[in-house]
Amino acid sequence: MRLPTVLFLCFTVIITAARSNEKPFQLSRAHLLYGQSYYGLALADSDLTPNYFTQKVDHFDDSNSKTFSQRYYFNDQWYKSGGPSFLFVGGESEANPNLIQNEALPWIVIAKQANARVFLLEHRFYGASQPTGDLEVASLKFLTSQQALPDINDFILGINANLSLTSPLWITFGGSYAGSLSAWARLKYPDTVFAAVASSATVKAVVDFSQSLDVVYSALHAYNPKCADSLSSGFGRLNELVKTPAGRDELTANFSLCRNLENDDSDIINYFYGAMISNYMTTVQYSHVNIPSYNDTLTIENLCANQLKGDVNGYGGIISVTDWLLKYYGETCVDINFDSYISYIKAGTAGTFGGNFKAWFWQSCNEFGDFKSTNSNATNSIFTRPDVPVDYFIKQCVTIFGDVFSNATVYANIDKTNACYAGQNFNASRVVSSNGSNDPWHVLSILQANNAELYPITVAGAGHLADTYPPGANDPVALDTVRGKIRNHVLQWTSAGG
């Protein structure tokens, strides 16, 4: 998210086909788990040939001479002599070459106008770019943003040498975590990266990201205060029912759970709460973003219409919203199998979807946190009564990866990340940072101009990565204007640097 994060899973409705034939953990809406944008572009649609760059496994140990092949894609169909080079930074998933080929995407529109070469560099440990070939803890120590940034720098320098570029001008692009890398590449390697575009990019790491749910409340309240306020009493009722055997039986039946909620195990209860909360969080985050389903159906308006169909205390509304989403996805029950979820992540292997999932979980535990607890201090929070503590997530880090993590190490790791990149005191120049006000992640992004050439832009009513998609009929009014501002900044940079 960021996905996406993998921690999104804990707040994503996981649905299986039938209660009588429960399957192991499965991902019905996998794109929601990742921070990187879901573009709805099939990998098979691209005819671009993959290329490979020889990259160091460890940029910080001169005694380690090991290398790996990092996959990248290259498109020069719009390039004209003297044009710049654009690098789309890969994030926490397999590289999709359509991102540098689809002419409807905003950065490709800019590339055509700027006569640019376009590159896509896959992130280490995702897709085919595997430094060690496994995801053991001893190998995952090489999976960090601090290793990924010199990957970007060395790749650019290598392409400069291969193409004999004497006055290269590189601009990086990225969204969500990849957007963070785009901004940080400009920060750390200003002599290599001339400018950067960072969409929905978080620059501040937090262990406890309960603030994300406050944004969900604000977005719902802005649309319809009754919709937002009904959730507080509704989740309060959920919290009472979960405490007794009779109440858990009622929840099992009312919410079409794939298995009985038959004990008060805190992990299972928290996983159930996460499934319910995700209905609201993911819909708000992507509402009206121009991607399938969210551009016209899974919207705040439809969410609230279903929420307000229920009883006056909000509990019936939560049931109505769950039924709406089950029917929309053609599913019959909601998965609450916490053990299968943990087993799925632990079993992830390099180069697979499950492996990508495990790799991002590692990065969350090791660098970024962003665990979506319900520990909000906001007086108007609608999600405080389901008690999903931050320790529930830290415990998963320990369960999956072992004693390399603990409560103390996770907090210390996140402090190191902020010390490395300066958090929201980010101060690189020639960076444009775009966000949507409905996107929970925007509160961790670049929101103020710390210098005259840092350009933060927030679009009222827009969702996660909304500016990175082609214009849509249901876009917020200001969104196309923001796309134009980003385009103008980039074209000015290419003109000034050329």
TrEMBL record:
GO biological process: proteolysis
Gene3D superfamilies reported for this sequence: alpha/beta hydrolase, Serine carboxypeptidase S28, SKS domain
Annotated signal sequence range: 1-18
Record keywords: Glycoprotein, Hydrolase, Protease, Signal
Hydrolase among keywords: yes
InterPro entries cross-referenced by the UniProt entry: AB_hydrolase_fold, Peptidase_S28, Ser_carbopepase_S28_SKS
Domain of life where this protein originates: Eukaryota
A Pfam family of this chain: Peptidase_S28
GO MF terms, alphabetically ordered: dipeptidyl-peptidase activity; serine-type exopeptidase activity
Presence of keyword Glycoprotein: yes
Family, as annotated: Belongs to the peptidase S28 family.
Name of the protein described by the UniProt record: Peptidase S28
